[in-house]
Write a structure and sequence with these properties.
It is built from ten helices and eight strands. By secondary structure, the chain is α/β, with parallel strands linked by helices. The chain has a three-stranded mixed β-sheet. Strands 4-3-6 form a three-stranded parallel β-sheet, covered by helices on one side. It has a two-stranded antiparallel ribbon with strand order 7-8.
């Protein structure tokens, strides 16, 4: 599952250049019975199987035997909601990162209690396993590593990097089926282009994710743009108001 995604495009080149290193560990390699068992029935009854603590404990001990400092992260629905800020923090963390990916009904809770440093969730939904969630985090961290992206400015200008959604992007042709690229982007006036893009980023955030505005890093000019948009009728709605609006419609 991991090698397929990591063997393509940007992450593949990052690994080839030595900017990123990813190793995989099969928990079945850290079992002692002939069936290589990594799960068992839950105490107290219930549906599904639970991943055992022993193979995870032995795997972590083996991984950490080289003495390098590591941050151990459990992918799980009870964890902190993953954000761009967390991606930036993890990208700057000098430690190597170990991801524990759950399967089946869950993982013996003693793993969470005693073997991990953090638990992270990528959203309020259920996946078959934690592998996809781990790949999401690996991807988001990797693109912040210097040299991984061709344009170092890309990561800084993307959605959520400043707490806002991204501004709209356009490329050739300048007109397609009557739809035109905004004139300001063709003007060559970089100051006006920057202000137009910033205005659009703030406008898109107001319309689609107003909850982000309060947490965003806004300069005095951004605040002026925000006030201007609000005076033009772009009203910031609370989550409760949005939910009520969706229900009534």
């Amino acid at each position: 599952m991991f090698s397929g995604y990591l063997g393509e495009s940007i992450l593949k080149r990052a690994i080839q250049k030595g900017l990123l290193e990813v190793k995989f560990f099969n928990l079945r390699d850290f079992t002692s019975d002939k069936h290589r068992t990594v799960d068992d029935y839950p105490f107290g009854g219930g549906s599904g199987m639970v991943m055992k603590i022993e193979p995870i404990y032995d795997a972590l001990n083996s991984i950490k035997a080289d003495g390098q400092d590591r941050l151990t992260i459990l992918m799980g629905p009870q964890g902190k909601p993953y954000t761009q800020r967390m991606a930036e923090s993890l990208a700057q963390d000098p430690r190597r990162i170990v991801f524990i990916c759950g399967r089946y009904e869950g993982i013996d809770d003693r793993v969470r209690q005693s073997l991990v440093d953090e638990e992270i969730s990528i959203g309020d939904y259920v996946l078959t396993g934690g592998e996809l969630a781990a790949l999401v985090i690996i991807d988001s961290i990797a693109r912040l590593v210097p040299g991984v992206l061709g344009d170092e400015g890309s990561a800084k200008e993307e959605s959520f990097s400043w707490g806002l959604l991204d501004y709209p992007h356009y490329t050739r042709p300048p007109e397609f089926m009557g739809m035109k690229v905004p004139d300001v982007l063709l003007s060559g006036n970089h100051k006006e282009i920057w202000r137009s893009r910033r205005r659009e980023a703030i406008r898109q955030t107001l319309l689609k994710r107003p909850d982000l505005i309060e947490k965003a890093f806004l300069s005095s000019e951004d605040t002026a743009i925000l006030n201007e948009l609000c005076s033009d009728g772009y009203v910031v709605k609370s989550r409760e108001e949005e939910d009520e609006s969706d229900t009534s419609s």
